[in-house]
Amino acid sequence: MVASAIFITDLAGKAIISRNYRGEIPLTKAIDRFAKYLAEIEDDAMKPVFHVDDNGDLMSDEDVGSTGVGGYSYVYVQHNNLYLCAVTCRNSNVALIATYLFKLASVFKDYFGTLEEESIRDNFVIIYELLDETMDHGMPQSLDSNILRTFITQRGNRMANNDKNKPPVALTNAVSWRAEGIKHKKNEIFLDVVEKLNLLVAANGTVLHSEIQGAVKMKSFLSGMPELKLGLNDKMMFEATGRANQARAGKSVELEDMKFHQCVRLARFENDRTISFIPPDGEFDLMTYRLNTHVKPLIWVEAVVEPHKGSRIEYMIKTRSQFKAKSVANNVEIIIPVPSDVDSPSFKSSVGNVTYLPDKDAVVWKIKQFHGGREYLMRAHFGLPSVSASDTGDSGDKKGKGEHSWKAPIAVKFEIPYFTVSGIQVRYLKIIEKSGYQALPWVRYITANGDYQLRMA
Amino acid sequence: MSYNNNAPPGPPQNQGAPVPDSYFTESRKGEVNELRNLLRNFSTQKDMKKKREIIKKVIAYMTLGIDVSRLFTEMMLVIETRDLVIKKMVYLFLCNYATANPELAQMCTNTLTKDCNNDDPMVRGLALRSLCSLRLPQMVEYVSEPLNRALNDSHAYVRKTAVMGILKLYHLDEEILERNGFVDTLYDMLKDPDAAVVTNCILVLNELMQKSGGMAINRAIMLHLLNRLGEFSEFGVVAVLDLVPRYIPANQEEGYQIMNLLDPVLGTTNAGAFMAVIFAFLSLAENLAGKEMKQQIVTRVKAPVITMMTGGSAELMYVMLKHVDALIELCPGVFDDEYRQFYLRHHEPTNVKYLKIQVLAKLANPTNAPDIVGELSECVSDSDATLSRLSVQALARIACRDVGGEGCAENITCRLIEMVDLDIAHISSEAATALAAILRKNPSLRELIAPPLPRALKYIHEGRGKASVIHLLGELGDIIPEAPYALEKLIDGYDHIKCSEVKSALLTSTIKLFLKRPPEVQRMLGRLLQSATEDVSCQDLHDRALLYYRLLRNAPDPSIVDQVVKTNMQIAGSANFAEENFDEDMRDELMKEFNTLSIVFGTTSDNFVSEENQIKFVKMPAEHPLDGGAGSVESAPVNPVDSLASQVQEASLLDHGPVDTTPAPATAPMAAEMDLLGFGTEPTPAPVVPPVAASTFSLIPNVALSGDEYQSKWGAVSDADAHVIIVPLTTLPPSTDAVETPLSQASIKTMASGELPTEFKFFLYAQDASSDGSIIMVQASIGKSSPCEMLLTIKISGPGGFEKADAFVNVLKNALGAYAS
């Protein structure tokens, strides 16, 4: 992979900071071209990878190369109110560049808490340092914020005139993600199993797609170089170790596609499905998994809409929780899109409170605590102007738009603690360190909404 | 660095917008001068913090794009500091403005060179990196000395920086490589204990050897790197993985071993590494078993690919979708059952949505087609016009390809007819065009398509859609009674038609109708021809109208007109529209650049990357004199192959022993002059023998050589002394025997031979009948794909130069007779 230069701009494409690693392209011109792209291309037509030919003309994918070789390719990602962008004049590994940019963003985030225009302006010296360490001559180098922290600090590093001259061993260590000699007073490790439910329901109520995306997140505060082993009720593991009956007893789950943090020994996992690793210090995602099973929608929403053109529109929303009665969903939000020109809202609901958000063209029904196996009703009533926006539009195109712009799907947000949809369980977390300390593992389970959408009729 | 050095110290870009940061808000007039004063008093300033603030201000200005190069002299005086942060900032300044002030920059190199000897490895690395990044060609000689030292530094951080430094200097002065023997050093450093250093070595070598197709790899290097795979960081691992597609495994077994070794890497969260593994797999499959294997591989990676696609951000999803699309083209059917993953989500960016629609159409099969058609129909009513057009096109594609099983095409046709009647301009028009395409493909649907056409003509206004309806009316005129009258209105209003596409369609359709129903149409045709021949807005239209007119007037027999007008538009059941057929060769070329921008742009890199930035990687074989693919050697004598197979076992990948025990006499042809990893140290025989005249050249008939002898003799001749000759063949021999038999009659013996999926391989030998009696050994391969030719690698054990090889080839050509051209 080769990136000629990296730059960060605001949403208008104005450069905030940049680094021209290879000096093979005129960067000022390249950034201006990027700003022009942002300004000229409509949101709909923007692509995160695009090519500009030698004359500075934007090439659509079909046209790339039609005006001869040369020019640059841009790869950019958005983060809050910033664009992180890489330019290259070679045929680079595009997935790698994107990954680098994301990693870079997360390094900045680790350093400054949030990554936005302000934090970059406030910390430009460190940003320069980080840009230099994470990439050399356009090739990615070290991108582990834990390690970078050991030699690039917020306070600024003083060149050693005392003998405590600490070379950044860890930068090139075999265990590249963990520095040596970490000490914590209390040896603790926190483990969160977070499952997100992705759901897509058609207007007629059939489930088009449902999927669980799970993650095991860790916060490690352990001293030294601890060896950890995580045991899950993984069906494949039971089978691999000859405990087929345990696998069959229904206490195990079949995790389809697992991805691990780089600290996990992948070859070992391949062999006997053991998850063993030396954790980085602090927060990280140990693994993610995906389950493509048919899940009953945990929170079901039905909407009946009665539009009376030119006068009013009425909504009847019914919601039902479809999980065990002893579980509780917290902070449930049901977001119902409404036409943009409604007025004088009035609501009636059996529970929770309802608000109209004119800037989002939506109604939000919030239910603080939603116990399993319950059903609630909400009615909303709006006035409509006698001449609607869509009527005034003359072209046929707009006709389509007016009709459909508010037919976005209903979205639902929720969190159910102490519960996982898949039934995944942490059976054990073994912590072994040569000093022999006792460490406390804390485990939490949580299920939340992922991309949870129900289309409206 | 980031800003054009020659830019005038002009107004900063953000003068209008105040930035609430103290460094950026103050007015800038005269500030650079003020900074200069501050810098001049720098040494008297005691407070470290204040010192930093001054420098920070300079860098802040630089970041804003203000030219602070005037401060160059002052900044250089500050370079002597013990504060690492100040040092870093000054270095940054230096690298940024050095090219504009080469003389001044040269003066401060002393400090930099001194820092290269600092006790702190951090400082050593930093100084070296800056020194190499000055981009001053006249400095190259100064730099090479500290660089050489740094390559042997005790600290890996310095070494890895030095390795990258070689590349930086190379871009300034290409000759530096030879003067310092850097290439050899880099190959040596592939054995460096630190993986980060090795990573940079690979990256740098790849670029240095750009012209010869990337870093030279052989079996020893490959095994060495693969065995250490676990040590690399998630980004470093990509460098190694990118080498694998270029490596041709010694035999099938090794290929499979490499695959097994790489398989766990599919569990990574790093998309770059992940895609690199897939590419490595696909390339290995090409060498091993071809198409079926690729199917298996795509099936294997399907689940993780989907996770990678759905789990990340929108930007990554876009990139992944492009690659998924390529994989689907490569192995149709594999992703079919995951079609629900490609359903649109409301909040996704449009670029992702468009791609998903296109992919969905490719996934349709009889099982999932009803679902997909339903989903696409929903998308048609989306508020985004482009999206609904794409959805209609996707539906048409499914119907035209007839992949949806029984009744699917009918179902789609019905839906399209409903869409035509929807009376939403872009949807109706697109649906009409889709119907025209479907009719060409599936004439049995004509009864279904006919009824709505006359009314559709009234409300479709978009040119292309209207032209499609007119076309359909012409085609289906025999079953639509009112067809001529629908057109008549248009003909009467001819002058109001603006779109030439509509006019053309009108002309053709009216002629077609005339041939079907002459009495009704004759008069309106006359009017139309008159209008069209007088129309000067479109040359094509005018000429065609004239042509039809003359034809009708002069043709002795109306059937001739019939033949001219009624060209068969139908597409045979199994064929696709020409524009939908992806060129196989082009796809193969494109797949060679998997995991790059090429896939995203859909065109190979030589179309958009200029030549000097182009790296066309070449595959490099592991040189095995006797191994023709362990599994597929047919007529080989038992001994040599067996003994070799066992050697391969010893060097097996999963055996984590030190690589240096690998017995393979491996030297890659690309880098024959270098001693890669310390193998192939056999002294090369000096080629000082007088040339042998071709006329006197003959071979000893009964030469015999054992497998071991052959192998040792082969290994004893360096690759640099091998002769590579291509003999074009007229036809592909049916079997290995067809080659061996004539050769053996010409005293060229076969040690082993075999048939691989893509080629025949032979290991041949012969002995020169002249006094020196040298043994001639040949590795030959005949590729099964065109052009048909025989690739010979000839090594001569004993004296003899190019002439001898040439003479030998002549003998071989004669022996092959019928095949050789």
Automatic annotation (TrEMBL), chain A:
CDD domains: AP-1_Mu1_Cterm, AP1_Mu_N. Pfam families: Adap_comp_sub. GO terms for biological process: intracellular protein transport; vesicle-mediated transport. Its main location: membrane. The keyword Membrane applies. It comes from the Eukaryota. SUPFAM superfamilies: Second domain of Mu2 adaptin subunit (ap50) of ap2 adaptor, SNARE-like. Residues 186-455 form the MHD domain. It is found in: Endomembrane system. Keywords: Membrane, Protein transport, Transport. GO terms for cellular component: clathrin adaptor complex; endomembrane system. Belongs to the adaptor complexes medium subunit family. PANTHER family: AP COMPLEX SUBUNIT MU. This is Adaptor-related protein complex 1 mu 1 subunit.
TrEMBL record, chain B:
Residues 28-555 form the Clathrin/coatomer adaptor adaptin-like N-terminal domain. Gene3D superfamilies: Leucine-rich Repeat Variant, TATA-Binding Protein. InterPro entries: AP_beta, ARM-like, ARM-type_fold, B-adaptin_app_sub_C, Clathrin/coatomer_adapt-like_N, TBP_dom_sf. Keywords: Membrane, Protein transport, Transport. The keyword rRNA-binding does not apply. Its main location: membrane. It is found in: Endomembrane system. Residues 1-18 have a biased composition (Low complexity). Belongs to the adaptor complexes large subunit family. This is Beta subunit of clathrin adaptor complex AP2. It comes from Chaetoceros tenuissimus.
